[in-house]
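ARCHIVE CARD
Drawer: 12
Card no.: 0347
Subject: one protein chain, sequence and derived structure
Cross-reference: see card 0346
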Amino acid sequence: MIHRIPGTIRIRTIAIVASFAAFFVVLPRHSTLTDPASLYSQDEPAAADAPTTPAETAIPLTESKVVDRVTSALDRSIEYLANHQRPDGSWDNCNAGNALSLLAMLGRGHVPGRGPYRDILSKGQDYLLKTQNDQGVFISKRTAGSGPMYEHALCTLACAELYGMDPSPVLEEKLRKAVAVIISSQSPAGGWRYHPNPNDQDLSVSVMQIVALRAANNAEIPVPETTIEKAIQYVRSCAHANGGFGYQSPAQTPQTSAAGVVSLQLLGQYTDPSVDKGLVYLSAIPIEWSNTGVQYFYYFHYYAIQAQYQAGGKWWNDWHPRIRELLLEHQKSDGSWEVPAGTSEQANVVGDNRIYWTAMSSLILEIYMHYLPAYQR
């Protein structure tokens, strides 16, 4: 039996429209599109203790100067990524950087075969597909010894989003094999670990597989109901009674708390009590350019912005202006980003860090643009 995650949207192609305003449209669950919209503010819930459910519509955009700043920053970051692609189509020896660079360009509305970056995206896609082995696992030059499932999930996510824009037979075959790896690698407890062997699990690896499965589900690649149910149970097992989520237990950290909240949301569990408790926990974490309380700055904010967007209302209204302004303030003149000093991501753990940091910053800001279905409500 296959399962469609509640709230997902059937999207096989994305039309790129010329109108500037159309960049800010969210596809709601109902039958019509809203007016060109801003996600810069949303209606508050009816009551402070109202359940956290995905909002149905977007509010019209009014802050045009803010929009200009965000789109200008993103255009410069995408140009930076385009200029740093290698001749073979890669950006990095680590497939995380390659997949994230593709996702960042897709998230700005660029697609293979069209527009100014058509060749960049086509070369990047071709390179990524060549790194899949016969078992369906995406393997890069930096995978050896560390386990491939982080990179594999990001590559699967990129393939799912690419397939939604251009459903070619080759891409479909590769995507189906990649999804099959994720399904077969799920542990009996419902989570995933570094290697594609179902004997252990942690929430940090698991959230990436969940996002990839959500994207595959959107692209109409079947995901078994049992896989979803087991994933829900595993994420719940990591929830702390007072809010937040842990790495392999209910001992909260900022990173895994953001991962836990967005995992349950993308699995359709918007009203799960641990979601609201997790959002309360996240709300107390400082949003600042430092390592205060957050050792993995980009990993945390990548999931935190998605969790706040899925929650909507007061959560989104309070969160997004602060991270937006922080990133805009720290973008370098060449369009790239670095990372706060003293954080764990300052170490060279993901390859060419400027690529990783720039792609992650772009994806955080692109939450407003709704080109990537996996991140939509």
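Annotation on reverse: Residues 20-39+55-375 form a domain with the Glycosyltransferase fold (CATH 1.50.10.20). The chain has a mean pLDDT of 84.
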